Amino acid sequence: xxxxxxxxGFSRSGKTTLAVALVRHFAARGERVAYVKHTHHxxxxxxxxxxxxxxxxxxxxxxxxxxxxxxxxxxxGGQMSAPEPYDDPAILVGSIDADLVVVEGWKDLRLWPVILxxxxxxxxxxxxxxxxxxxxxTESELPVPRFAPDDLAGIAxxxxxIASV
Length: 165
Hints:
The protein has 165 residues and is an alpha/beta fold. It contains four helices and nine strands. It has a nine-stranded mixed β-sheet with strand order 5-4-3-2-6-1-7-8-9, with helices on one face. Strand 2 (33-38), helix 2 (50-57) and strand 3 form a beta-alpha-beta unit. Helix 1 packs parallel to helix 2. The longest helix has 14 residues, at 15-28.
């Protein structure tokens, strides 16, 4: 059964660090893990660098970057596909063949359960119904489980429970 977990938060909050750590953790367990990065930059101009490269090195079997209108995919060898248009993020993410899809971004969508990543000194997102946990170095006012950023084991157990991987 394929499951999806979202990672949202503002820039520099630690979203990519958490997403890549989850990819590494579940891939090391033998799960087929996909990483999807939503960006406001044109993905056609991206190379295999930055966040997508880190996810691939962490063991993601599928790596996708999507802007507002097109997506690109990298294979295990780092070859990038031609940009493909898409209309619906749910269909894009739902079409990925993996046991677990870790989606970073799309903070305004509520299509799958999301973990909110916050950090002291970084603007906070407003609460949303899809937030199932908070990863933060400060206290959270949200009535959901809170994890310290370095508690990967606890976060992974939580993802196991809610995502049914």
